[in-house]
Specification:
Blueprint (H helix, E strand, L loop, with lengths): L1 E4 L5 H13 L3 E5 L6 E5 L16 E5 L19 E2 L6 E2 L5 E5 L6 H14 L3 E3 L17 H14 L2 E5 L3 H10 L2 E4 L7 H8 L5 E4 L6 H13 L5 E5 L17 H8 L4 E3 L1 H5 L5 H10 L4 E5 L17 H18 L19
Helix pairs in contact: 2-3, 2-10, 3-4, 5-6, 9-10
Bound molecules: phosphoenolpyruvate (PEP) and manganese (II) ion (MN).
Length: about 350
């Protein structure tokens, strides 16, 4: 259910409608960034009671949303969502393409500082790197944990990059929320509903990666879980799915980008690294993703990939990354999308809550 207010409705009328929605036992979601006041309504109860809201002052229309996902839907919010970050002018979903880069895993302070400097110079505004790693084998490197988050936060201060890092369970999410600018929910946890709800109760933007066999509708429903708890800053990410094709680690589903754009206002990134599995296929997939309308890229980069503790084979060398960003800039120009000038970004001090 969706309430569309009159163009000249007052904030007081809007607040009154929200209060009434709560009295009826539902949850109001006032949506910002729209050309008029719009309030989404969610709740487990029968929403027909909400019909009476149509008589309230300032209400233009009560619209039934028939899709299973509500808050993520373009019916609810026709304008694209632009995700912003405290203390930074970086965005995801605006005109500027978001470039996130860094190693698969945080391995040491020296490793992160070297790669952070390199990707910053190469054109990234976001530093990626996992401190909590969801590994197929219990015997594989599981990540540095909180120490790894401290290193990422230190790199943010030193190089002015925003930090995106993965949470794999409720305990790590509580830590990631404190240290990171953006919380990554990985493919394996896309339908960990308890984790999604907890991420929805934070106030940090969430990068939600598509599960390796999830449909678009399942991805949107996972995003709905986060938004239903009040966190509207969700960014989707296509990272390749399981198919019969074995020439890449996963099959990059480029078609999901225009399909998602039609159904949802949320931004969508492409992760060409986990789709490719091998370095030489990463750049073409990255370019394809941007050409298809992705809002940016998240790419694995390592200064010494042969010695990486995870995903070395698919990690770009810094100079390959910088060259890729140059090509992305060219494609962006055709599409009316910009990229930040490469160079050493200024420390922002953004997002530090510790
Ligand atoms: C990662 O980003 O390193 C990762 C584990 O990705 P995914 O969840 O897409 O496999
Ligand atoms: Mn990885």
């Amino acid at each position: 259910m969706l309430i569309s207010m009159n163009v000249n409705a007052t904030e007081e009328q809007m607040r009154a409608v929200c209060t009434r929605i709560e009295e009826l036992g539902f949850r109001p979601h006032p949506l910002t960034g729209t050309s008029r006041y719009v309030i989404g309504i969610t709740g487990n109860k029968d929403l027909s009671a909400a019909d009476q809201l149509s008589q309230m002052p300032g209400v233009a229309e009560v619209i039934a949303v028939t899709k299973p996902y509500k808050l993520v839907s373009r019916d609810m919010k026709p304008e694209d969502t632009v995700v912003r970050f405290a203390g930074s002018d970086a965005t995801v979903g605006g005109a500027e393409l978001a470039i996130m880069a860094g190693p698969c895993s945080v391995e040491s302070r020296d490793q992160i500082f070297r790669v952070a400097e390199a990707v910053g110079k190469g054109g990234a505004r976001f530093l990626r790197g996992g401190a909590f790693k969801p590994r197929t084998s219990p015997y594989a490197f599981q990540g540095m944990g909180e120490k790894g988050l401290e290193i990422m936060a230190a790199a943010r201060e030193a190089f002015g990059l925003l930090v995106v890092t993965e949470a794999i369970d409720q305990e790590s999410l509580a830590l990631v929320e404190q240290y990171a600018d953006m919380i990554q929910i990985g493919a394996r946890n896309m339908q960990n509903f308890a984790l999604l709800k907890q991420a929805g109760r934070t106030r940090k933007p969430v990068l939600l990666k598509r599960g390796m066999s999830a449909t678009l509708e399942e991805l949107l429903m996972a995003a709905e879980y986060i938004m239903s708890e009040g966190n509207y800053n969700v960014v989707l990410c296509e990272r390749g799915i399981r198919t019969f094709a074995s020439h890449t680690r996963n099959t990059l589903d480029v078609g999901i980008i225009p399909a998602a754009k039609k159904l949802t206002h949320l931004p969508i990134l492409v992760d060409p690294s986990h789709a490719a599995g091998e370095r030489d296929k990463v750049v073409p997939l990255a370019l394809a993703g941007v050409a298809a309308g992705a809002d940016g890229l998240i790419v694995e980069v390592h200064c010494d990939p042969d010695r990486a503790l995870s995903d070395g084979a698919q990690s770009l060398y810094p100079d390959q990354f910088a060259a890729m960003v140059g090509q992305v800039r060219g494609i962006g120009e055709v599409l009316g999308r910009t990229l930040p000038q490469p160079g050493h970004p200024q420390p922002t001090g953004a997002g530090v809550s510790k």
